[in-house]
Amino acid sequence: MYSRKTFEEIEEAETDVWSCTNEDCNGWMRDNFSFTDRPSCPLCQTEMQKEARVLPVVENATKKTVTG
Ligand SMILES: [Zn+2]
After folding, report:
1. What is the whole-number distance in angstroms between the Cα of residue 27 and the centre of ligand 1?
2. Which residue has the higher pLDDT, 34 or 56?
């Protein structure tokens, strides 16, 4: 764990993630970053299982200025 002080309060929320089922691997990804219903681990290609973790909230709203 990093104990660097932050100036902003980081909001945390329970988040759906995919976790690698390989005990020797710490791979995981956020559910909303996965592109399939059953993703495989990006590190070892093992099947992943869904679980909930408390993670800092990722703000997607900051790049709204991108025009289409
Ligand atoms: Zn893995």
Report:
1. 5
2. 56
Radius of gyration of the chain (CA): 15
Q: 51 C-alpha to center of ligand 1: Å? A: 15
Burial per residue of 7-40, b for 16 or more beta-carbon CB atoms within 10 angstroms, e otherwise? eeeeeeeebebbbbeeeeeebbbeeeebeeeebe
- Domain ranges for the chain: 12-56
Is 0.70 topped by the overall pTM? no
Task: Using the mean position of ligand 1's atoms as its centre, give its distance from the Cα of residue 7 in Å.
Answer: 33
Tokens of 40: 């495989």
Cα(10) to centroid(ligand 1), Å: 27
Please give the distance, rounded to the nearest whole angstrom, from the Cα atom of residue 6 to the centre of ligand 1: 30
